[in-house]
Amino acid sequence: MIISWTTYTTTQASIAQLLDTDTTYVSKKEWVVAAVDSLMTQKLNASMELEVFHAILKSSRHKKSNDPLADDLLSSLANHPQLGKWTMHRLSCKEAVTVPFLVCMIDVVKSNARAADPILAFLASHVDMICLLWQAEHITVVRRSLELVKRLLATYHTPAFCHHVLAGLANYVEHLRQHLLPHHIQILTASDRTEFFYEPVCDNLTVDRECIKQLIQITLTLLSLLPNESWHWLASIPNFQAEDDDEVSLPDILFDFYSNDEDAVELQHAILLLYTNQADALHDWMDEIGVTPHTMFLHFLDRTGMEASMLIDLLISNETDFLAFFVVYLKHIQSNPNAFMHTCIQLFGDDGPSILVSKILHPLLPVLTSAGFPYNASVLVHRIRDILSFME
User: Fold this and answer.
1) 3-state DSSP call for residue 269?
2) How far is residue 60's CA from residue 64's CA, in Å, rounded to a whole number?
3) pLDDT at 197
4) Which of 42, 52, 65, 84 is the most buried (most CB within 10 A)?
5) How much is the pTM?
């Protein structure tokens, strides 16, 4: 079957074939402009057109040169007089039919194109509606709306926008507090739980592990952008209590959600950057709730067996950014080694520092200085030796 841009009706499998056709650029552009106009002026589902838009924008991200068709699509969307009304109409629906719209808008944000600025402005002005989608009944709507806000925060973080997101976050956290109980957390973070098929954990709440991770990332970003406004209300959120009434530490809860190495490293790096770049008032609060670079790293070591070999594997792996994190973290220890020692004793007892020296720091040095190590680790070696000179 010949797929034509002028008489196009699509299925999921035919989109890639459509983009690879020899149809002229002019014909493709005409189709895009007509499809955008049809989308904006007719209150139809039009999920197929949005799927094509998604494919165009996704394809453009993998091209080294400028993609004129993607630029045409963004310009057509941004300059259409019905953009605001269409956006509100799409966001007013909490059902699965809004998923292609959310996916397309995520692509728009990820494009980083100047032509997308008017679209970002409209999305930002309706962020209250996007945040309401976090309480939708369809799991993909919840996931994609959380991702959209997370990505908007990374590129469009005006104070007014951040305050609206903060209000939406506070409302959603209160919703979680009403419905998400400790045993639900245990179900969500169980090692044998799969996210491939969504399984509800409780009534009146659509949530999974990925949703909570997105929520945590949004919270960390807001703490960095609005530290004075955001941590005050966060301070009122208590730690979850286990069912035997023993308090479960926040680092343990966080690592239960960020259970694989890549996610765990990303989380620690985000907390480290937040802690080192903000004022003392935020430090005091993070110390109080037990979420600091030191508590996170030491919990991470404890959960992974307190073995230097694990750190070596992470240092030579291309699958995580552990090297970038570890270099900055060691510098953080150097800036105040007493704080590191204090946290180590607090978590592991009086023998904590000596355990860390014998099991982690000393075993790292011969490996990092060996001829077979894959890169120059002189900076790491210097910082580890400096820390050892203080701890021993």
Assistant:
1) helix
2) 8
3) 79
4) 52
5) 0.88
